[in-house]
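Q: Hi! First time doing this. I have a protein sequence and I read that you can turn it into a structure. Is that right? Here it is:
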Amino acid sequence: MKSIFIRCSTETKKIAEALSKNEDRSLNKQIIHMIHEEGKKKNIVFTEDQAEQDGKLIYSGNSIKVGLQGLSEKAKVGNPNQ
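A: Yes, that's right. Below is the predicted 3D structure, encoded as structure tokens:
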């Protein structure tokens, strides 16, 4: 997951907040949505690496099983007797 800091005027922030409220999104999700929509319009496409895909899962509220928890889940799926 990467971070972007945006410096803008109070007016710009208020416009962004109004747009996000109108679309029932957080301000952050609205900005990301607008960036992706503009990219689609201009046919800008990038392939995502695994870290980016994992970041989207986390951002969407889904969890990623890592470490011992992830191994435990894999063991249960592979062998129901464990």
